[in-house]
Amino acid sequence: MKMNKLVYGLGILMCFAFAKAYSQPSIDTLLSREQAVQLMLENNYGIKIAENTTKIAENNSGILNSDYLPSLQGNAGASRDENDSNTDFNGALDQNGNLREDIEINNAQTTQYSAGLSLNYTLFDGLGRLYNYKRLQEQYQLSQLEARSTIENTTVQLMSVYLEIARLTENVKVLEESLEISKKREQRAQYQFDYGQVNKLEVLNARVDINTDSINILNSKQSLRNTKRDLNLLLNRELQANFVVDTTVVLQNLLVMDSYLEKVPDNNVRLLQSASNLQISDYDIKTSRALLLPRIGLTGSYGWNQSINPPTAFFPATTRTGSNVAVGANLTWDIFDGGRSINSLRNAKISYETEALFKNQLEQEVARDVANAKGNYTNALAIYRMQEQNVLTNKSNFERSEEQFKLGQVSSIEFRQAQVNLLNAETIKNLAKYDAKLAEYQLLQLAGQILNIPL
């Protein structure tokens, strides 16, 4: 029996030690919402990948990828031949009446050099390159919108984790306050037991509640550490880096939110992406139509060559140098290419109709999402206000119960119930507060304003 008491007492002391260690003042640096967003923009992998994709689209949209510049090609060559020859005159006589001797030439070298430039330029291609250039420009705009969408989604995800850290931080504080109340109750019960005013059951009940509160603190602390690691992962920094967050919450006025929602068609990133895709489909139609028209091109060339020839049996060594300049124009018209151009044009028109249907569908979806998000935000605000009032009511009830408990007018079980009711009310209020703020962020994302206002 004594051994059981000793073990139980050691368990209580360990809980006290853990609770005391966790309740030490924090000296960790404050990570504000603005700093968190800045670190996210600088370090997050998803955002870096989106930025690189945008850079590629920007390069593709430049003049160097537009087919508006001419093509210039240069070429050069050199060759060298060595020949041995023997010329037999077959008994022919020279001018003096003597037999002509054979002429033998060894290692006769022939050297040739050449260099040239050729220029080609498309003067007219049915306006195909014009619309292709505009299409590339629009694709660059679309890539920027996609990068913005990635940043918005990551920002909301970041704020969701940030708010969860803030909620757990406040919950730990509430639990620590509840633990202090339980410890004071245990001390009071111990004094009363020592003077014979209560039985041992009151002391044991108080110790059980201390143990329960200590365990709740341990669990909340562990959840807090895990969530901090989640945030560090989003920020792409050391996972074990510790910090504290700002638990201040300022909720936007509904009138201000309504002013943002009025401009959803102009600012919502999904609607802007859909409009960009529709414009790209329109350029595809015009590019396909250009295949049915003729193409006019200009050409130009310049060439230089030199040939160094060895002497032969009949001619001396020679060097010949020449150059030439040529200009021209050409017209190409695929009068009928088997129907491929016509089929391409038809498919482009169908793709445009499909994108238009997607856009109409998306407009309805966004309108629904905005209505749902606004309803969620309004509901969350109302719940938060009610939970604030609920905390005041439970706090008043706890204070009265505490006074009556000290006077012996309520039992320890009733007092503990009032304490638990207050604890639950405060944690639920914290949840409602951060749920309302998260609902606000989600509504601001739909309104296209999440990156334009202080978080």
Account of the 3D structure:
With 455 residues, this protein is an alpha+beta fold. The protein has two domains: 25-67 and 127-292 and 340-447, Outer membrane efflux proteins (OEP); 73-124 and 295-332, no CATH class. The chain is built from ten helices and six strands; from the N terminus they run αβααββααβαααββαα. A hairpin with an 8-residue loop joins strand 5 (295-309) and strand 6 (318-332). Helix 1 packs parallel to helix 5 (200-235), helix 4 packs antiparallel against helix 5 (200-235) and helix 4 packs antiparallel against helix 8.
Put simply, the count of helices is 10
* Morphology call: elongated
Beta-strand content: 15-25%
The top-level CATH class of the largest domain is: Mainly Alpha
Q: Give me the side-by-side strand order of the main sheet.
A: 2-3-5-6
Distance between the termini: 59 Å
Low-confidence stretches: 1-26
Please write the string of helix (H) and strand (E) elements.
HEHHEEHHEHHHEEHH
Give the second-level CATH assignment, the architecture of the largest domain: Up-down Bundle
Q: What integer value in Å does the Rg equal?
A: 43 Å
Helix content: 55-70%
Number of domains: 2
The total of beta strands comes to 6
Largest sheet: 4 strands, antiparallel
Quaternary structure: single chain
The name of the CATH topology of the largest domain is: Outer membrane efflux proteins (OEP)
The name of the CATH superfamily of the largest domain reads: Outer membrane efflux proteins (OEP)
